[in-house]
TrEMBL record:
This is Membrane protein YdbT with pleckstrin-like domain. The chain crosses the membrane at residues 25-45, 57-79. Keywords: Membrane, Transmembrane, Transmembrane helix. The keyword Cell membrane does not apply. Residues 78-151 form the YdbS-like PH domain.
Amino acid sequence: MSFPQRLLNPGEHVVVSTRTHVKELFGPATVLLLAIALGVVATVSLPEQTAANVLEILVWVAVVATLVWFVLRPLVGWLTTTYTFTNRRFIARSGFIAKEGRTIPLNRISGVDFEIGVVDRIFGCGTLVVSDASEQGRVELTDIPRVEKVQLLVSEELHRISGVSHDDGT
């Protein structure tokens, strides 16, 4: 996934761009399977009568409503939410129709940490914690794939803009 070039300032380039781990879609996938199974069972088990046909239609309307709310909505949210670090700023963007975003200049970021739980370790993801000097203080980005690598890349960029050298430890 790449951040749109048209949204970058002149001289700005993407250091890392990511979205949450696909494990965020495990719940919606389970709902998808259960809702379709419920619809099929209802269709097969109802007798061939007019009242049963109305009930079958109602079951499928409920299945479709469930799929839209508990499957399609989270899928669109997952697809349209990105976290991008450029050589100048951190950008969080989300939304399909109504969009929202947050930008933090890199020179305002005071630290980038990560946390990896047991389940996160299994899936190779974790929480990236971006601390800044604003009133909000910190942004937690949960379920970031390869979080240690992302933290390393962002830390290197923070060191680069602050003028700190890795070679001599200053």
